[in-house]
Every structure is written in C-alpha cells, then in structure tokens.
Amino acid sequence: MPVNLLFSIDDGYVDQFKVTLYSIVQNTSCKDLDIYVLQPQLLANNDEILAFCHKLGVSYYPIVVDDGLFAKAPTTDRYPKTIYYRLLAHEMLPDHLDKILYLDADILCLNDMMSLYELDLTGKLYAAASHVEDNEVMDFINKRRLKNQDAGFYFNSGVLLMNLRAIRQKVSRQAIFDYIDKHRAVLFLPDQDVLNGLYGHQTVLIPEEIFNYDARYSVLYLINSNREWDLDWVIEHTVFLHFCGRDKPWKKDYRGRYSGLYKYIARQAWKL
Q: Which PANTHER family match (predicted)?
C-alpha cells in the first residue's frame, strides 16, 4: 500500500514543496508515495512538478479547491486561504484513502517517517505535536481563548496525521464554518486554532523533538534536554525539522542554526 502525503500550497511555495518532497524521498524507507496537493487553481508550474515527481519516482495528484469554499475566513499575507484547506481535506481526497499525513512545505525530513505514518489512530482523529507543552501559562491561555478546556494540549498543525475514515464521520463542515464565524476575533493562527478548538481532545500527542522539531527553539531544546538534543542528535533522531515562523531558511538574511542543512538539501533537490 502506498504512503499518502498531503500538502496545501500556492504558486509561491512550489520550490519549497519540492525541497520538502525531495528530503522525504531520500530519507524514508517506503518509496511508494502518493502525493496530494491542495491548490487554489492548477499551479502554474504543474508540468514542472509532474516532471520532478516522475524523477523522484512518486505519484502526484493535484486537487484544485473551490475558490469560494473559505471566502469568509479571515486571511493575511502570512496566512492565505490555502491554510484552511486541510480542515476539509477529507471532502476533497479520494474516498478510498483511510489515512494521510499532512505536512507544511517549510519542513525537512531527516529520518524515516514510517513510525509516525504507521501510528495507530483507533478512536482518534489526528496525531500532532505540541510546541508549548512545557509552557503551562500559554497552554492555559490557548484553552481559554479557544474555549476547549477538554483538550490535553495545544498542537501545531504543520505535521498532522489524519485518520480520514474517522474524520469523515465526525468532522462537520458546518461546525468548522460556525466556529470560524464565532471566534474570528481570537483566531491568531487561524486553521490551527480551529483544529485545536474543535478537535484538540481527539488528537494524539506525538513527541515534538522527533516529529515536529521547531527550528526557532533549538536553544530551548538544548537547555531542556540537558544539552543532549544538539545538532548531531537532531540529524540522527529527528524526523521532521520544521522552520516555523516568519524567518525562513531560503531567505538570504536567515541566520538560524539549520540554515546550512536546508541550503545543502535544497541544492540537491534543484539539481534534479
């Protein structure tokens, strides 16, 4: 059975998507990959993406999303309409898919992701990591803000394993639209807030240092791990290195700890 991966991008993120995909193919034991990409219109570089995927030996399935679907959802230059697509991905994906792994396109895969993909989600909708698990104050604020005190943690939606069979039964399009309309004034991270607010209590917690290592917090990780999670540890153990936030490693002014690693892998991808 193929491994199903999901992305949601517009024309501005094609190069980054290709780097992420290249890193996955290079470091994952399963090479039978089906790549689904939600997009506002057929990407301008569709033929280039098809050729790239062909060279990688993976299957590419573009899915054009109805432009009016999230017309009333709050957006900014940092949070375009495409970030909402994953909320209703189960309606757009083929019915025969039971599971899919959503990934942001600002991620590097450093090690085999199969331990996450094969995680048992029986009775749950999602699996995700928290980036504020140790910050009780922020966790409390997020729960009060989103009115989901039953949730065990506030999770980052950039790496999201989705139990499509259960989601189709329990996730309501109307509930999502109603939540956006009711809470639009407090949706700081819009799609992520919606997922947490409605379905945080039905999400399995996965370790962030393995499956969603936030590159912004490298010093904090090092301190909290008693200096164990250094660069060598990350390269050996971390599966997904996530470049969250405004600072991105493909920008010339980026000075983060992992900029060289990203640029090296990007160069290998662009050689294709």
A: GLYCOSYLTRANSFERASE 8 DOMAIN-CONTAINING PROTEIN, LIPOPOLYSACCHARIDE 1,3-GALACTOSYLTRANSFERASE
97, two tokens: 């898919």
Residues 213-260 have pLDDT tens digits of 999 999 999 998 999 999 999 999 999 999 998 999 999 889 888 999
SS3 content of the chain, % helix, strand, coil (to 5): 45, 15, 40
Query: Which residue is listed with tokens 């290998």?
Result: 268
Q: How far is CA 225 from CA 56, 111, 206, 228, 230, in A?
A: 36, 20, 17, 5, 9
Amino acid at 52: F
Please indicate, yes or no, whether the overall pTM of this predicted structure exceeds 0.85. Answer: yes
| CA–CA gap between residue 180 and residue 28 (Å, rounded) | 36
User: CA 56, CA 79: separation in Å to the nearest integer?
Assistant: 30
The DSSP secondary-structure symbol of 66 reads P
| Dist CA 187 CA 196 (whole Å) | 11
The CATH code that applies to domain 3-270 is 3.90.550.10
Identify the three-state secondary structure at position 34.
Answer: strand
CB 140 within 8 Å of CB 180: no
